Amino acid sequence: MFFEKSKLYKNKFFNLILILTCLILIFIGKLDLVALRNLSSFLTDFLSPLSNIVSKPALELENVIKDVRSATFLRDQNIKLKSENRRLKILETKLANTESEIIELKKLLNFKIERNKIIFTGRVLNISGGTFAKTMVVNGGELNGIKKGQPVISSLGLVGSVISVGPSSSRVLLTIDINSMIPSYLTQSGWPAIAQGENGKLLKLRFLSSEAKPIIGEIIETSGHGGVFPAGLNVGKIISKTNGNFYVQPLPNPQKLRFVSILSKVNIEKGNKSNGFAPLQENQNKINLKGFNKFTN
Amino acid sequence: MEKFNSEIYFNNLIFTLIILLACFVQVSLNFLSFFVISQPYILAIVLFLTIRRLNHEASSLLIILYGLLYDLIIGGLIGIHSLFFFLIKFFTINLNMSNKIYKKYGEWFLFCFSYIISLITIKVIFVIVNFKFPDIYAISFNIGTTLLLFPIFLFLIDLPKIILKIFVIK
Q: Which own/partner contact pairs does A282-287 have at CB distance under 8 Å and 24+ positions apart?
């Protein structure tokens, strides 16, 4: 009814072949061939400067929008930040005590302490956020010591993992991508789950025990299961429950990311001293008895 | 004959440049925070309008190649955009609305049809290949923003013509 018969049947065979070619391409793409991966890395590497130039106007526009927004809410934001700062200061002192206690207890139990070493911090060149793939390109590659599978973080938490590496750029699979699955645990109730991307804005919690009762606002962290992601990285927080499924808002917003760090795990138990940033202060080689050590020194 | 061939080559060259530029613009859209959930398919709009406005039919093989290139650039599933672009072209050319509907709603209606049918077909293939359901909200946001942006693009393309008309009449 809607189709022009003559035109449609004229190229029917040719069109069919082309559709089949596309389907074969999809099948080949799904096979995840090394040659295709290398080609993708090469193209990303080759086109990243051009992509960077074309992205400039969008970045500038975003900065202008951000400036206008922040100017409008400056007063409210200031009040909010002051109260948040006060709250954080109280939390900081509490955290410092708890952290030193945890270190002491871990040492007493001869617990293997894992430390994450930042091997590269780079600029985000572009983010592909269509409805089919959620990836980003970082301006560091093999030459900077980046390898496939390494976790990528921002100041707020886990961003994703490296999926392909070129000589001077690498592609990162974001946590919100449909192919991303992160072994995590609920920080308050302690239940393990898998945070899976849906190519949208949120992550869905899967394989969660029926006994688990997650709380809205609860923070999700990486559990370290499987050894791909180190334990204790912030993934996001639970924001909603729909049809019995819990949805997690990733803490780092991919659109606002400008710089990211790529991690490699270093086991400091084997005598390797961490050269990178160490958020936890390492205690001296003695048992720290609260309140007594000061007198013995 | 030679003149005709050179015209086809020139058209394809223009088409290539427009699509390549649109690819990069599409990627750069992700930095804009007002497209929170998903970004509109500017590439689909550009492809549709280029196919409609070019004097000669754009090569299907070229369209598949650009889809492949775009998949390699964004690091997505290879071949998915090749099929998507090809379907857009296929429906744009072959979906011939009855004159009544076309006169009433114009190009926007034709774009809606070709875009939505192509996207749904591709999404079904994507779900079969991945065995996972993508976020419906993100897809509907993508469709909505793309369809809303289409008239703006049409207006921008026709703007020089409108201005010229006003001056010529005056």
A: A282/A103, A283/A100, A283/A103, A283/A104, A283/A107, A287/A104, A287/A107, A287/A108
- Looking at the structure, tell me whether residues A128 and A258 fall in a common domain: yes
| ipTM > 0.85, yes or no | no
Helices B107-130 and B136-169 pack at an angle, to 10 degrees, of: 160
Domain that holds residue A82: 44-113
**Confidence tier at A271 by pLDDT (50, 70, 90):** very low
CA distance B117 to A189: 45
- On whether residue A212 sits in a domain, the answer given is yes
Q: Does A199 touch chain B (CB under 8 A)?
A: yes
Q: Among A13, A22, A38, which would you mutate to test the B interface (most chain B Cβ atoms within 10 Å of its Cβ)?
A: A22
DSSP symbol at B30: G
Whether residue A14 is contained in a domain is answered as no
In this prediction, residues B28-46 reach a mean pLDDT of 82
Residues 6-65 of A with CB under 8 A from B: 7-8, 14-15, 18-19, 21-30, 36, 39-40, 43-44, 47, 50-51, 54-55, 57-59, 61-62, 65
Cα gap B3→B5, rounded to integer Å: 5
Cβ-Cβ contacts under 8 Å between A and B: the total is 182
Task: Tell if the CB–CB gap between A18 and B61 is shorter than 8 Å.
Answer: yes
Query: Is A10 a domain residue?
Result: no
CA-to-CA separations, A285 to A107, A244, A275, in angstroms, rounded: 9, 49, 19
Number of domains in chain A: 2
Task: Select the residue of A39, A126, A179 nearest B28 (Cβ to Cβ).
Answer: A126
Contacts of B76 (CB under 8 A, 6+ apart): A128, A130, A132, A133, A135
Q: What is the pLDDT of residues A240-261, one digit of tens each?
A: 888 888 999 998 888 788 889 9
DSSP B133: P
Q: How far is CA A96 from the centre of its chain?
A: 26
Phi-psi region of B133 (alpha: psi -120 to 50; beta: other; left: phi over 0): beta
